Amino acid sequence: MGYEAAIQQLANEGLVDQNLVGIVGFSRTCYYVLEALTTGAQHFKAASITDGFNLGYLQYLAQVGISGNRIPHEAEGMIGASPSGEGLQQWFKRSPEFNMDRVTTPLQVVANGRPDVLFMWEPYAALRILNKPVDLIVLREGTHVLTNPGERMVSQGSCVDWFRFWLKGEEDPDPVKAEQYTRWRDLRRLQQENHKVPTQSVSQ
User: Fold this and answer.
1) Rounded Cα distance, 140 and 129, in Å
2) What is the C-alpha separation between 161 and 155, in angstroms, rounded?
3) 70-105: per-residue pLDDT in tens?
4) Strand order in the sheet with 46-50
5) Which region holds residue 200: left if phi is over 0, alpha if psi is between -120 and 50, else beta?
6) Tens-place pLDDT, residues 3-29
7) Which residues does residue 49 pair with via DSSP β-bridges, in sequence order?
């Protein structure tokens, strides 16, 4: 509701186009992004989540026995039940991963190293199986808040590229990035097929 109120206010002031808004999540706010995409009224043109909590069932299981079961305990507190028996019905309603069929926004999922792929896998896999536009980027493993300049450049640069592509129809002409745009054009065609949206021109 906070995101939606802020967007509406900025749109009322003529500062943003309400139809061209993106949203980014990192760490804890990955869950907020997924919640907005699955339950919110605002349609986001593009979204990106990196190395974070998503309140998913797979992430719940993958964190059992780690750090005193911190993430499973937090998830149970937020959902209001454990994902078993009657409590599983609560998860069906409140976990974004059980509601990814509602997502209409292209999503970029970024994992911080190979071990983090499992941590971030569920939203990516759910959208893939639903034939919705989603892209997975795996960084070299670094700290949770990246401090290595090269790693930060890759992480933040790919995020900027993603939003330029979906919000402005622009591509970086750097030949090193050609393969990512090949993937993303395929995702744009998929988005158009799913929602019958007009083709957007691309500026090189």
Assistant:
1) 26
2) 10
3) 999 999 999 999 999 999 999 999 999 999 999 999
4) 22-26, 46-50, 107-112, 134-139
5) beta
6) 999 999 999 999 999 999 999 999 999
7) 25, 109
